[in-house]
Amino acid sequence: MSNIKDSLKKVGIHLSLILGVIILLTFIFLKVFLPSYTNHGQTVSVPDLEGFEYSEIEDYLKNRNLKYEINIDSGFNAELKPLTVLKQSPKAGHKVKSGRKIYLTLNSKNAPMINMPNLVNGQLKNVQEILANIGLVRGEIKYVPDIGTNVVLEQKYRGRNIPEGFEIPKGSQIDLVVGDGLGNQILDVPNLIGMDETDAEFLILGSGLRMGRINYVTTDSVPQGTIVRHLPPAGAEVKTGEPIDLWISELNKETNF
What we know:
Blueprint: H1 2-37, E1 43-45, H2 54-62, E2 67-70, E3 85-89, E4 95-97, E5 101-106, E6 113-115, H3 124-134, E7 137-144, E8 149-157, E9 160-161, E10 167-169, E11 173-180, E12 186-188, H4 197-206, E13 210-218, E14 227-231, E15 237-239, E16 243-250
């Protein structure tokens, strides 16, 4: 009977020692090895990279024990230099582990092309919202006499009227010709025949009218750049702000020695 008790006692001691070793190893694994392996507690704050140029990124992140990867998709902002950081993930201020990769979206080198919408006859307020929503910039607003108040009469890109569907770079500036609501006055069209284009434009605008289409005709009978025809014709009654189309002479190249 005594031998049995001694044997059980030895087994109990051995089991206690084994259990103690297991507990110790578990403690060491959870509190020492695992935190060390996963860099537990070693976090860094993600810096704000938006606005950084591509050439500045690598050294800046390397000094902070962070890495980066450029997203395939890029964006475009006309006010920023090409290859400038537009977005980042994670966002600035987030706490991440040392060595974490930051995903970056860069500003495209070339502006994407977009189709110009039709803004003519639209209200200025609505037109400005349309331009902002599709990534165009509202440029100069020129008011001209017209019965429509704040109604867009012309849309211009680099000084020229552009039609609906014309492709222009995103971020381009669009100038607008807008009615001032005072176009109910009846005017007589002045006689522009024989004037040059500059004088004719000065008289048209000074009369409360506006420039319409410019057409060129070949002739040998009048000097180059002379107004040979206009519509509506001289003396016609029109409302303030009406466009005047011009026909301007140009020399016949075959007789220009």
